[in-house]
Design goal:
This protein is of the alpha+beta class. The protein has two domains: about 1-45, YefM-like fold, CATH 3.40.1620; about 55-80. The chain has helices spanning about 10-15, 20-30, 45-55, 55-70, 70-80, and strands spanning about 10, 30-35, 40-45. It starts with 7 loop residues before the first strand and ends with a helix.
């Protein structure tokens, strides 16, 4: 995941000015809240949450291919 450094905000500032967090999300698509100068929370637009939670067909096929190759012997035994 690529993080836009302009969309980062400290947890203290987020607590004091949550409307700034929402403006960042509206402008940049996401906002990263830092805790102890480390990215800790990701705030995203609700409508984009469903998109990011769904894997593309290509990703699913790539993972399936890796699993089949890794466990080929077990699959062959089960196929008998």
């Amino acid at each position: 995941m690529t993080i836009d450094t302009n969309a980062m905000i400290s947890i203290t500032e987020a607590n004091q000015n949550f409307s700034k967090v929402t403006r960042l999300v509206d402008e940049k698509g996401t906002a990263v809240i830092l805790k102890n100068n480390v990215p800790r929370y990701l705030v995203i637009d609700f409508n984009k949450a469903d998109e990011s939670a769904t894997a593309s067909d290509e990703d699913v096929l790539a993972v399936s291919k890796k699993l089949i190759e890794k466990n080929r012997e077990a699959y062959e035994v089960l196929a008998r």
